[in-house]
Amino acid sequence: MSTPTPPGWYPVPGTGQERWWDGTAWTDSHRQAGLVNDAVTQTWQVAPGPPPPPTTLPFQPPFQPGPPPGRSGRGPLIATVSVAVLLLAGVVGAVVWAVQPDDPKKAGPAPTITVGVSTPAASDPPRSPSPTPDADDTSADDTDSSPAPALQLADKAHGWGVPLPDGWTAEPANERATVVEIFGQYACEQSESLCLRGQFAVVADSVDAADAQAAAERAMTDFAAVAFGTLRTHREESAGTLTVAGSEGWAIRWYVEPEQGAAGFAVVAAVPDPDGSGYVILRGGVDDDPKAPDPAVLDDIIQGITTAS
Q1: Of 171, 199, 177, residue with least CA distance to 287
Q2: Compositional bias (Acidic residues) spans (predicted)?
Q3: Domain 151-307: CATH architecture, name and number where available
Q4: Among 74, 164, 174, 298, which residue's Cβ finds the most Cβ atoms within 10 Å?
């Protein structure tokens, strides 16, 4: 059982104000919360604090409280908890309102969140200055991400340095080739010896020809049959000039399909011999097979040849 609530000022949750209860119903009288009075007849004194907030939240209807509950032995505790719950609800409502779009019927799409590490473009300025390592600080050497230079084989006959790609093996020079590089030996049906997934060589003897193009075309006809066996068909994929160790030559690329064994790519280049005696033939091939190197490796070898210092 409860007793009637006596007249007095009671807080209006979420507004910072109080409203007068006359004992039976709410009146239209409001005041700022925080006023202190020692007796009913004393003048109200405003406690120090910030200016009073508006009586209503933006775009929110004014709070309409019901009559305060009657007093009982648990009245103060219940009233305190109720006020706290209403204040929390008001704060949550204000936060929810703040994040809503202006027009709820035209809400924009949810943002896409990307988590990752971004690498700035070369033209972009650095986001923060990089520290300058001390003279005796060797940690900078450990973080150098520059790729290691490719190994080079010395072609003493022509005065060249020939790149050796990663995973390839250098074979001893012989009377027919001053540089020999191979990749992936495997047993094959069309040959009693092992076949190769990739090969490259610098032919020892230069050839006479009217020009580099004629020398390359003639050398391709011979090399394709030697490297892949009797051909069933072939097609020329590209041909044109190129520069090797500062000299202009001619290169041809074929895709070949032999009667037996794996199809593949053959590349032949002819460049002027440094001693002026004719044209040096550079030739290589790779199988068209997942276990074989990328055909572009032959271009890297030829175009990576430099004049030995």
Answers
A1: 199
A2: 134-144
A3: 3-Layer(aba) Sandwich (3.40)
A4: 298
Q: Is 276 helix (H, G, I), strand (E, B) or coil?
A: coil
Helix or strand run (H / E) with residue 218: helix 212-228
Residues of each domain in the chain carrying CATH 3.40.1000.10? 151-307
Q: 185-206: per-residue pLDDT in tens? A: 999 887 788 999 999 999 999 9
For residues 309 and 308, the model is more confident at: 308
Reported as a pLDDT band with limits 50, 70 and 90, residue 263 is: very high
Question: Tens of pLDDT along 151-169?
Answer: 999 999 999 999 999 999 9
Would you say 305 and 161 are in contact if contact means Cβ atoms under 8 Å apart? Answer: yes
| DSSP designation for 131 | P
Tell me the two tokens of residue 158. 């022509």
* Residue listed under structure tokens 């507004």: 15
Q: d(Cα 189, Cα 198) in Å, to the nearest integer?
A: 17
